[in-house]
Amino acid sequence: MFIADEDTIKAGKVTDVYFERALQIIEAKDLDKNVKAEITVKGLPKGYEWAVFCGLEEVLELLEGKEISIRAIPEGSIFRENQPVIEIEGKYSEFAVYETAILGFLCQESGVATKAARVKKVAGEKTVLSFGARRMHPAVAPAIERAAYIGGCDGFSTVAAAEKLNMKPAGTMPHSLVLLVGDTLQAAKYFDEVVDPDVPRIVLIDTFGDEKFETIRVAEALGKKLAGVRLDTPSSRRGNMRKILEELRWELDLRGLKHVHLFVSGGLDENTVAEIVDVADGFGVGTSISSATTIDFSMDIVEIEGKPIAKKGKISGSKSFLRCDKCLKSEIVPFTTEGKQCDCGGVMEDLLEYKMRNGKIIVNSEDVKTIRNRCLRELRYV
Ligand SMILES: [Zn+2]
Question: Is residue 121 a part of any domain in this protein?
């Protein structure tokens, strides 16, 4: 398969060739120097005002053992344009060849986490599941699911990702099962008979018949056991999804089936979720999250041998990302170890903390749930 495995990435082979050539010259002409390089985004996609930082854990793993130190903001943090998320300090030759891979982790995973956060912010307490692994190369499915979860998805469907993160995958049933059985209610009964009782009984009700009549048939047969129904109706047959959901809710409630949740999937993003968020109970979101627009970070040298220097258009010098612990107001200032008082009464402290010193990772790997909780908390302020 066309995959660069972990060894290839760690060998610095997923790199743009100009870094290899630059390093040849640096060695031949004895130009290697101590530098500080920072990673920032100059412009967020689609007019976004904020983004979610994701991908640090893999960056640390990639650079472990190199003679460098790293300051970074925590994964799951909200950041904005021109706010440094990582600063790398050390001989340029120690990390130059990894720039491509470092940015690759951060750009894609932060993009996915940001889109997931935008959807979750609209969905609020309603369930959002990541269903989009099928849109991307399978080799990166675990990274995509992790980022989607960090951004606020309540779960994801990919089994390999769940195994890596020690979680349970989430899902319902495919149209293919209903087609093979030949009847929606019979498929629901087989599902209930065979599948682990811990798995919620959510039945796909739009394979053959009308959404309303299939839902009533399944709900009356399964009763309390039915957790929900899923609608994945193709747009050509969909009509007005909002009206369909309202009708289903009415018919279910009328029959004392208020506990049956309405789950929608297919072509959703933050805008389409917003249109039905008050009448649906959960959303399966695919392509818009898994193939989210990347956050286009860049890495720039900002200091050489202790002296501030940067290319034109880029602010030089090592910086601190001061942020208030209470209201999350932030400010970028020249590097300082001092905190400062925020107008709101909170304390502004540097969000960039040492995660690696001289090649040694000095922080414990964070649980993905902790990172997700950080993101959900910060989302309340944007
Ligand atoms: Zn404040």
Answer: no
